[in-house]
Structures are given as C-alpha cells and as structure tokens.
C-alpha cells in the first residue's frame, strides 16, 4: 500500500507523506516549455501523452508520494459543451449556458469529449515512476463548478449580486453536475485513479445559511458515491469557517485545510486524517523560515494521520529549489 493510502486507511501516524496541490504547473520551467508550444490549455489537457508527461514532471524532480493528474476542474463544463477558453493573465472565460443542450447530453457524448483525460490517467498509473505512489484523480465540487458556469469567469472575491436570481437554472445545473461528476469520477477510477480529491475552491463565498443546499448536500452525495466504489475521498472546502460541521455532515475520508485555519484547533477537534495547511507564500521566503513553518505543521500533527500539502496551490513564482527543500525537510522529519 502506498504511504498516503496507509495514512488514510490504516490511520498511520509515523510517516508524513507529501504531495503538493498544483505540483505540476507553471513554477516548473519544463512545464512552461511545453505550455509555450501549446497555447490552447484545453487541448493540452486533452493530449494524453503531454498531460501524462506533465503529471510526471514533478515526480522526476522531487520525492513526492502522489501524482495528481494534469487536467482541470473546468474540463467538466467543457464536457457539457459549455464554451471555455483560458485567457493569458486573466483566467477562464466561459460561454453562455444552453440548458436545453446540456439537458439533452448523454453519458456517451460527455465521455467522448473528455476521454483523453482518462487515457492520461492510465498512462500515469502504468508508468513505473508511480509505483508505490498514489495516483490522484479529482473533480470540482458542484458548488465551485456552478460558480464558474453561472459567473462565466473567476469570481475572485465575491459573487455578482444577481447570482442566485434564476432558481430554476441553478437547481437544474446542480442536478446535472451531480450526474456527470459521478460519471467523471467513475471513469477516472476505472482508469487508475486510487484517490479522489474534491476541490471546493469557492465554498468560502457562501453565507452559512446557504452551505447545506449548495455545499453539504451535493458534496455528501459525491462522497458517498466515491466511498461506494471503495476509493478514499479527500475534500478541500477552501475558505469555510466551520471545519467541524463540514466533516460531521459531509464525512470525507480526509479533510484538506486551507492556510487561513488554525492547524492547532484542527488537530484538537478533527478526528479524521488531515491534509495540507501551510501557506504557499512561505515558499517565496527564506529556506530557514520554510523549514520552521513546515516543522510547525509536522509537530502539530505529529500524532495525527497527516498528509503534508499546502493550504492552496503552489504559486507560479515559486523557485523549484524551495520546493525541493520543502520535500526534503518533510522527508527528513
Ligand atoms: O498554464 C496555464 O496558464 C494554466 C494554469 C493552470 C494549471 C497548471 C490551470 C488554469 N489549471 C491548471 C492545472 C490544474 N488545475 C490542476 C492540475 C493538477 C495539479 O498539479 O494540482 C488542478 C488540480 C486544477 C484544479 C483547479 N482549476 C481548481 C481547484 C484548485 C484551486 O486552485 O482552487 C480551480 C479553481 C481551477 C480553475 C482554473 N484553472 C486554471 C485557472 C487559471 C483557473 C482559475 C482560478 C481562479 O478562478 O482564480
């Protein structure tokens, strides 16, 4: 069993395995090289050879315990035929939603549009580099995908005032997302994903009173589905205030915490395995400081099943040497 699965399944506390959100990406010169020649981000995600090569790039450099597949949570709206492009220095731009067209879409159409993602997963899983490491598949949570689909661009800090105005549209999309997210999860698992992480990057935008409807209930349905396939599920509800309530209601196997929560409070109150937490900006400071902060998390979670990770994705301006230093610090602990 891989070290990460030992933490999740056996609740082992001796080893502190490590992987990093966005470990394959813009801070690596070898990624930027491939990206320069592939200006269409979606097409790059749909190229199994390149997507698997990019996935493995960080594993060739650093002693990481998992490969997270190079893809994007927005491949799901792409699979649902919503137009999407990634504009340089701006982020994703999505087209209008055509509810009639989306409602008519069946499983075969959807899978046909994104099957190269599954091919990339199977290439990664079958590569000897990932032996004894976990291959992680992922999806966006229904709420976060709804935000992009309705808002049609990154909400950055807040939702548009009229976000909730079309109740019918919102509830239809949530149901459609739930159906296709399950299909997407099942195909990733069938092609070699051994863990699923659910990214709810915009959970923190919601008022508390909206959490049950938009976050807890739709995410619980996915968590139960992944568990029914005998695969562990990690949830990352970025920006929420009450991690206790989230864990009690949504019941993930692992909770991934963001950098704004107090890790000490988490270690005292949360009984399930924990992942992540450290602020990615620490990697932009000095080695000594990086070591100190990493050790702070490792000390706090010394007797807790813990997977080292950051509290959000690694920043593009990070020096790969700092990433190397971080991985070594965790491995030497
Ligand atoms: O080169 C480029 O310009 C593309 C940058 C890039 C990369 C490397 C994007 C665009 N997505 C990715 C890969 C990606 N995205 C992975 C790959 C595996 C990994 O190494 O971790 C994963 C897991 C994601 C997930 C993702 N995409 C999230 C959830 C995590 C998070 O950061 O909160 C979100 C919100 C997205 C949307 C997205 N993809 C890319 C951009 C610029 C955005 C918008 C972010 C925003 O709204 O601010």
Describe this structure in words.
With 333 residues, this protein is an alpha/beta fold. The chain has a single domain, classed as TIM Barrel (Alpha-Beta Barrel), CATH 3.20.20.210. It contains 14 helices and nine strands. Strands 1-4-5-6-7-8-9 form a seven-stranded parallel β-sheet, sandwiched between helices. It has a two-stranded antiparallel ribbon with strand order 2-3. Strand 6, helix 11 and strand 7 form a beta-alpha-beta unit.
How many angstroms does the end-to-end distance come to?
21 Å
CATH class: Alpha Beta
Q: In what order do the strands lie side by side in the largest sheet?
A: 1-4-5-6-7-8-9
- Largest sheet descriptor: 7 strands, parallel
Describe, in short, the structure shown.
It is built from 14 helices and nine strands.
Characteristics of this structure?
333 residues; alpha/beta; TIM Barrel; 14 helices; 9 strands; 48% helix; 11% strand; globular; binds coproporphyrinogen I
Write the SSE topology.
Elements: H1 3-10, H2 29-37, H3 41-45, H4 48-61, E1 66-68, H5 75-79, E2 84-87, E3 91-94, H6 99-104, H7 107-125, E4 134-140, H8 142-151, H9 167-190, E5 195-200, H10 211-228, E6 233-237, H11 243-250, E7 254-257, H12 263-269, E8 274-276, H13 287-300, E9 306-307, H14 320-332
Parallel strand pairs: 1-4, 4-5, 5-6, 6-7, 7-8, 8-9
Antiparallel strand pairs: 2-3
This protein binds coproporphyrinogen I.
Residues 21-26, 35, 41, 68, 70-74, 86, 91-92, 138, 154, 199, 201, 313 line the site of coproporphyrinogen I (1CP).
